[in-house]
Specification:
Blueprint lengths: L11 H22 L2 H5 L4 H13 L7 H23 L5 H33 L4 H26 L3 H29 L5 H11 L3 H9 L3 H15 L2 H15 L13 H14 L5 H24 L5 H5 L1 H28 L2
Helix pairs in contact: 1-3, 1-4, 1-13, 3-13, 4-12, 4-13, 5-6, 5-8, 5-10, 5-15, 6-7, 6-11, 6-15, 7-9, 7-15, 8-10, 8-15, 9-10, 9-13
């Protein structure tokens, strides 16, 4: 959730190998995604980029990781945020308004219920410490690994606990990329593409995962999913403020001032969508920006796959994994129920 900073020109050579690898994987995925037989089987370019990245990341990548890691991490973090900002050129304020009060209510209810369940499961059922429970709860209820890293300075968690929480949410968030598109044909009678997109945006862990899963279903689902997810991401700042107050009350805070992270890229996404609503740019320019955005997102997905390692299963441990699994089940089932209930009440 850190602000996007470009590498200094002197450090640029360090980023080139990883960026080149991300471009190669993304290019191959975009090419395959345009083949009718592949796209017809439900494999979008973004999903293919993640899959290819995971295969490479868990096989031969370790031998070139030291050279590629800076550029891969830059693509995963900063190019993803830039891609989300530029995604605003695909949307207008009218589409954001369509998500409206119901989307906000769904996000808030899902966030609060998931974090409360995480606190209960972590401390009462699995006997985990408060910091680990809070970190996994934040990652599951808001925006995955980014939320874990943003919560760490508030709860002053040890590095080992942060690693466990990140591994847990990455594992189940990655599973969600493939689960939600698979479930959609079975749930199409309950959800329209737009409402299913809101369901994904309000329950999936990472922004990148939401984009990939939505892209695999339809443009309507993808747009609604991204909007719902961005609204949820913007709840991170007030969540951290409330959590800081809670930490202070329980005596877990240290004397130094906790850092509150502001998700600036989510706010910029809204501003770009608002600018796009004014239709000031020629259509050719907008289409060019959308094409650039697709390439950036594909590179970010490739980098996400490259950094998703099976070894994370071992590092997490059984109790955090079981807790993460139960939270994942709640997000899929309970989050779905919340979506249907709110849509029925606010119709």
């Amino acid at each position: 959730m850190a602000e996007m900073t470009l590498p200094h020109h002197r450090a640029l050579p360090r980023y080139l190998p990883g960026l080149a690898l991300s471009v190669l994987v993304a290019g191959a995925a975009l090419w395959l995604g345009n083949i009718p037989a592949v796209s017809g089987a439900g494999f979008s370019a973004l999903t293919l980029a993640i899959l290819a990245g995971m295969v490479i990341g868990n096989t031969g990548y370790s031998s070139i990781a030291p050279r590629c890691e800076p550029g891969v991490l830059f693509a995963k973090q900063h190019l993803l945020r830039l891609g989300i900002i530029l995604y605003g050129f695909r949307l207008t304020f009218a589409q954001i308004a369509d998500v409206g009060i119901s989307g906000l209510a769904i996000d808030a209810l899902t966030l609060c219920s998931t974090f409360a369940l995480a606190c209960f499961l972590g401390q009462k059922v699995f006997g985990l410490d408060k910091q680990t429970s809070w970190l996994i709860g934040a990652g599951s209820s808001i925006c995955g690994a980014a939320a874990v890293l943003a919560t760490e300075p508030v709860v002053k968690a040890e590095a080992g606990k942060v690693t466990v929480a990140v591994a847990t949410v990455v594992i189940f968030g990655t599973l969600a990329i493939f689960l939600y598109p698979t479930l959609y044909p079975w749930l199409a009678t309950l959800f329209s593409p737009e409402t299913y997109g809101i369901y994904m945006g309000s329950t999936m862990h990472e922004v990148a995962q939401v984009v990939a899963a939505g892209h695999a279903i339809s443009p309507e689902a993808e747009n609604a999913a991204v909007i719902a997810k961005m609204l949820r991401v913007m709840m991170l700042a007030p969540f951290l403020l409330l959590l800081a107050m809670r930490v202070k009350q329980t005596g877990h805070a240290r004397t130094e001032k906790s850092k509150i992270t502001i998700p600036w890229f989510a706010l910029l996404f809204i501003l770009v969508a608002g600018f796009n609503s004014l239709a000031l740019l020629p259509e050719t320019v907008v289409n060019l920006l959308i094409t650039l955005d697709t390439v950036l997102l594909a590179m970010a997905m490739a980098a996400l796959g490259l950094t998703t390692h099976i070894s994370a299963l071992k590092s997490a441990g059984i109790k955090p994994l079981l807790m993460g699994l139960l939270l994942f089940v709640w997000l899929v089932v309970g989050g779905g129920a919340i979506n249907l209930l709110v849509h029925q009440v606010i119709a």
